[in-house]
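To whoever is covering the structure queue this week,

Two jobs came back overnight. Logging them here so there's a record in the thread.

Job A:
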Amino acid sequence: MAPTTPTRALVLGGGGVTGMGWEIGVLAGLLDEGVDLRDADTVIGTSAGSFIGTNYTSGTDWETLFADQDHAGENEPVMHTDPAVYEGWTQAFITGAGHPEAVGAGFGRVARTFGAGVDTETRRAVVRSRLRTTHWPATMRVAVTDADTGQLRLLGPEAGIDIETATAASGAVPGIWPSVHFDGREWIDAGMVSAANATLAAGHDRIVVLAPMPEGHAGIPSAQDDVARLNGTGAHAFLAAPDAAAREAIGPNPYDPTRARAAADAGRRQGRTLAPDIKQMWS
């Protein structure tokens, strides 16, 4: 009997505009070393990762996108988390008591209580500036959260939702960006419960996870925990998270586009370093 071909997944986590820069850099560094993950069977994006994955799988020229990080501040406002909103996030974790759907519903209440820091038209312009395509790549999947139930949903081309709407929903951080409505429901950022949602790749044999924000919160597993769980099922999962230099480049505010290029540069250096290990596992 002929051996089966391993299935492969690339998971791209959330982390704001600086997380986007870092992920762009890591993927650029891997390409520098001849490691191309665009042949993944499935690419799963959460929040920032939904934009990066969509561009990556659509054939976007990666050097151009990397260079564009110099100008991120021209397309995105610098956003800050209001202390009251941050307290709302904290309460969502506390009242959710480690149950992902309860935490997600708590973040939905934050979205309804505080609204957003910008209007819908401004957000739409930001989303369009991030995307280099209007078409769903066949292998791309985008994670979103139902603001009422807290349930996670994975969208693909068959969902009948355009990619602009899907990515806007996946990155709709409560209290920062406006929530998104479709299918008669309200949708928010899927990264508020798990910044990477790496376990959505369960069932694949080889999995690479890029997690700009790998930490867990208040009973919610970290990206390291999720990768360990995946490896415990017999998969080969590899986690890449920002190293010390990348964390310094990213800075304290993930919504600051003026740091996008520094994050991309740090990510590129890190991607080159990680390339041998990822290449061996992936191929």
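Job B:
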Amino acid sequence: MQEKWRIWWATSNIKERRLVVVIVLFLAFSLCYWGAWKPLSTRLDNSEIQLLRTQKTLSWVQEKASLLLKSGRGSQVAQVPQSSLVEVINRSAKRSGISFTRILNRNDTLEVWIADVEFNNTMDWLTLLKNKYGIEVLNVDINQALKPGYIKINRLVLGY
């Protein structure tokens, strides 16, 4: 193949050679532009757009956080209940429609096991415990239940 190319090159006139050189240069330029430069330029533009979106979101969050702190809601301290941890958790769980399969009281923490409970309902209950009573999730072991949207809590440790 290389020998055929040399013979053609030697027997071709100057116009044909120039045309081949121009085509080769055009192909090399095209390969560099569309193979390397254009994809990199597109990625850079997309990254800049994503950065602007992220900065806009950050400024929005900072603005809302400052408004929340000014209104006093962000600085509220959760009320510590007068009743025991067990009573508070039992009452709030009943109101939320959550039933325990097992409860273990350990001085200042409470371990509970819950079988097949709706995920959103559980998150609302845990949010209520945190915001209203100052009870926090110290440790949790969650598995997916058979029903969609439901979870099984193998061990949930709650405490102040």
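Note for Job B: The longest strand covers residues 109-118.

Please reply-all if you pick these up so we don't duplicate work.
Q.
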